[in-house]
Amino acid sequence: ELIHKNLQRIDMDILRYIMRNPIVNRSIEYNDNRLALYCAQNGKCSITGKVLEIGRIECHHKLPSKDGGTDEYKNLIIVHIDIHKLIHSTDTNEITRLISKFNLNITQIEKLNKFRKKLQLELV
Fold first, then answer.
1. 4-44 tens-digit pLDDT
2. 72 DSSP assignment
């Protein structure tokens, strides 16, 4: 009952879209966890807390696959596509543009930097 009550806050059209459009060349586990995370995060970006829209949703590996990261639930987060770019960006102008676009506060920048650090990227 509690699970269904929490799902009432989820945009079911977006959830259905995610279900019907798995990421090609990704594992079943990755795609299942993508759905579960969307629900667990109430359809919001893990960094900004803003509601995500179709075409703007991406799944980020906390520990990159190249470093042994898996498609397990605990290694993934759902973020806005531009926040995902920001996590990975090394271009100073792009970083500045995206931080400004989202008007990130200190707490959000700290979350962002946690993921950038795992990628061994300069903190912002």
1. 555 667 888 999 999 999 999 999 999 999 999 999 999 99
2. -
Q: What's the rounded Cα separation, in Å, for the pair 11 and 38?
A: 10
Cβ pair 90, 44 in contact under 8 A: no
Q: Rounded to whole angstroms, how far apart are CA atoms 33 and 64?
A: 16
Q: Report the SS3 class of residue 77.
A: strand
Q: Tell me the pTM.
A: 0.91
User: Residue 47 in contact with residue 79, Cβ under 8 Å?
Assistant: yes
Task: Mention every residue, 6+ apart, whose C-beta is less than 8 A from residue 107.
Answer: none
**Residues in contact with 110: Cβ distance below 8 Å, sequence separation at least 6, in sequence order:** none
